[in-house]
Amino acid sequence: MRNLTWYLLAMVPTIGVAWLMLANYLSVVLHRCVAHRAVDLPRWWIFTSTTLTNLFVLHINPRTWCADHRMHHAYSDTDKDPDKQPNVTYAQWLAGFLKHSPKASDPMIQKFTKDAIFQHPIFAFFSHPIAGPLCAVTAWLAPFALTGSWIYATMVWVTIRVLGMLVLSFQSYFAHGGDRGWGYRNYDIKDQSVNLTSRIALFLTAGEALQNNHHAKPSRASHAHLDHEWDPGFQLLRFLERIRIAHIPEKPALTLNEADIASDVTP
Ligand SMILES: [Zn+2]
Ligand SMILES: [Zn+2]
Description:
It is a single chain. The chain has helices at residues 2-35, 43-56, 62-74, 90-99, 107-112, 121-127, 131-147, 150-173, 199-204, 211-216, 232-242, 258-263. It has one domain. Helices cover 58% and strands 0% of the residues. It is an all-alpha fold. The protein binds zinc ion (2 copies). One zinc ion (ZN) is lined by residues 31, 35-36, 69, 73, 214, 218.
């Protein structure tokens, strides 16, 4: 019982570090930098973040994630949207997510990720089908090696995955629920994206729950477009800029946008 109390106390900083690493890798590196090119990051930061987060926190396939995400923008709220198809219930969305396991070798994944960065050995390694199971093991071994406790390691491993599902539910499902009256919209665009108001959702997703803002202006580094809106991922990005790791362009170079990607693809 005493051990359990210590384990629960130790979970707080551990999950805090995991959140920080995932916010950096998923929201800043993969989403804002690699998928949208809204910010500039040096390669050493991209590949170090990719390696450490995948090995020790949670595996997120860099190539299939970026391809799926670009398809999500190109085909939002249609049957071709890999994130959320129209009129699905939460149970249907969850079942679809659990079944969805694209491979980096799939033709559509390759068409949406022609960028040279995906050929880099580190991205190629973490995009390989073996990386998922391998990282599931190393992510459990890390807390086990630090504490020697398999109970603690299992608690950390399970909590990160449960929170990961919660994050995905907020950003992929609830933040695209305009047809169900959730959240609010600043931009009258043709998809069902909304901005969620919950501070918990905004914190957990590192600002990715402001999907209506992001869908309207995907090349903008910040998802918070109004004074009252909160984008913790952008605050992290500003910190990285302050310590001279990130560069946020005044006007993002629109070298890659969803229209370009869509026109490159035969639906
Ligand atoms: Zn979206
Ligand atoms: Zn996006």
